[in-house]
Amino acid sequence: MSKQSEEESQQLQQKEEEQQNSQIIQQEDKTEQQLQQIPYVHMLNNKYNVREAVHAGSWYSSKSNELKIQINCWLEQAKAEVTTVAQLKALVVPHAGYAYSGPTAAFSYKYLKKYPPSEKLKVFILGPCHYVYITQCCLTRQEIYETPLGNIKVDLETVKQLHEQGLFEQSDKDAEEEEHSIEMQLPFLAHILGTDNFTIIPIMVGSIDAKSEEYYGRLLSEYFDMDDTLFIISTDFCHWGTKFAYTYFNSADGEIFESIEKLDQKAMEHIELHDLDKFNDYLREYENNICGKHCIAILLHCIAMSQNTHMMETKFIRYAQSCLVRDKKDSSVSYAAAITFLED
To answer: How many CB atoms are closer than 10 A to CB 76?
Structure first.
C-alpha cells in the first residue's frame, strides 16, 4: 500500500470513529434528558428511591430462610401473659444486633402476632438518630424499604401530610441507610404481618426540645387514635461503660448490673404510669442515656392527648442486658420490651 493510500485509510478510520463517538454522546445526552423528565420517586430501577437493607448480613442475617427461623424461634420462646389487650397501639422495642436484642424484641412482637390487625396497618416507626445530628424530626424521601423478607412500601400519602405541617426535615438516602434504629424493626414486621399488609411511616427523631416533643406528639396523636395505626418506639435503655461516657453506680443496689437494672426500672415505672413530667425529672437527675428518650416522650404526649387515654395501658414485659457488668472496665446496653394497648 502506498504512503498516500495509508494516510487516506487512517483519515477515513478517524472520521468513522469521530462519527461513532458523536452518536454515543448524542445518545447519552438523550438518555440523560429522559431521566431528568422522570420523577425522582419513580426511578426504581436505579434504587434512587429505595432505602437498602445495609445492615443485613452484619446486624442480622441477610438469608431469608435463616432469618425466618431465627425470628420464629424467638417468637416461640417469648410469652404473652397480658390478657386484657383489646387493641395494640404501640410497641417499645430495642434495636441492637439481633444476637443481642432479638429475643427481647420478640416479646413485644409476640403481641402483634397474637393480636393481628383486622385491616391493613399504617405503622409509624420512631427511631433516634445515632450518626446525624438534627434538631427536628426527619421524614423519608424514599418510597421503598428493603428487607431480606421482601420490600416494604412507605405510606407516601401520610408522609406528604406530615411534611406539609412544616416542622419536618427530609433525610437523604445516605443518612437513612447509616441509621439502624428503624431498619432493625422491619424484618419482625415483615415476617409477622406480611409485606402486603402494612405500610410504614419512618420518622428519624433528632435531639429535640420539650416544646418540639409536645408539638410532634400533638400532631401524631391524631394518627395514634386511628384504628388502622400502630406506633413502634425503637429504643435501647442504659448504655453503661466508659466507652459510652456513662458509669452511674449505686453500690447500695448490689453489683453494677443490678444497679443498672434498678436505674432502668425507675424509667420504666414512669413510662408505665404515662407520667412525662416524672420521666423528664428522672432524666435530669440520673442522666440515663436512653437513646430513644425523645421518641418515648412523643409517645407519652400521644397517649396524653388521645381520646382514649383513660382506657390505655402500658406494660413492660421483658428486660435484658447485653452483659452482666461486674467490673468497671466492662460495658453493657439494656434492652426493654413494652406494649401500649386499649384494655379489653
So the answer is: 9
